[in-house]
Design goal:
Helices cover 69% and strands 0% of the residues. The chain is built from three helices and no strands.
Length: 80
């Protein structure tokens, strides 16, 4: 069964990391946070316009992952 929240193409990068992990490692944290918030906003807007429950699942997934990286970042570099 296909996973609409983490599709197979997320795993196809040569390093085996998903896009969110690569973004965290590639960009300064404030830019990473902005990207994550932009995706959350995008899926909320799309849910309001189209009513797809899957979009709420994506909002929850991006929010959960952002929280994980906020905690990781705070442990590595101290509170923001």
């Amino acid at each position: 069964m296909k996973n609409p929240i983490k599709p197979d193409h997320y795993k196809s990068h040569r390093d085996g990391k998903d896009p969110i992990q690569r973004w965290y490692e590639k960009y300064p944290f404030d830019q990473f946070r902005t990207a994550m918030l932009t995706h959350i906003d995008k899926y909320l807007d799309r849910y309001v316009l189209k009513g797809f429950i899957e979009d709420l699942d994506k909002v929850m997934e991006f929010t959960r992952r952002l929280k994980e990286y906020e905690i990781l970042h705070a442990k590595e570099f101290g509170p923001i």
